[in-house]
Amino acid sequence: MELQIRKALESEINILLEFEQGIVDAERPFDNSLKEGEIHYYDLIELIRSDKAEVLLAVINGEIVGSGYAKILKAKPYQKFEEYAYLGFMYVKPTFRGHGINQKILDRLIEWSKEKGMTEVRLDVYAENEIAKKAYLKAGFKPNLLEMRFEI
Hints:
Layout: E1 3-7, H1 13-27, H2 44-49, E2 53-60, E3 63-74, E4 83-92, H3 101-115, E5 121-123, H4 130-138
């Protein structure tokens, strides 16, 4: 199994949109506030075109099996850094999970973030998503803030 991590191309938008729906489907059990039907979290074409973002794909034997992005965002005025890299669109096809593909994508996105001068990398994960939390803890991330909600 030869794994290649490379930049996404605009021409690959259909597979990227499939991955996005895979992410939505995986997150629905953790968030009953998501609308029914097809929803979109990202403007993937804008991310691919942006010099403030990097969209990466994991490819095995010509098959796209995973994705992720880093995007440079402005920090809050009270934070000690001016910008940080936010990670999202983290997805690996179910049949390819458990082989370290997500970690390889994370490593490359963190490398890109360092090259852009970032000193902080953040991401969001649902509190109840134990599998994802375990993977990010293993990668060196630490819990920071838990958003709470109350449905009325």
